[in-house]
Amino acid sequence: MMLKLIESAKKVEPKGQVILERKEDFSKIYLENGDLIKIAGKSGLVGINGQVLQPTALVWQDNLDLEDYIERAGGYLSNANKDKILVRKASGAIRMQESGWGRWPLLKN
Question: How many domains does the chain fold into?
Answer without folding.
Answer: 1
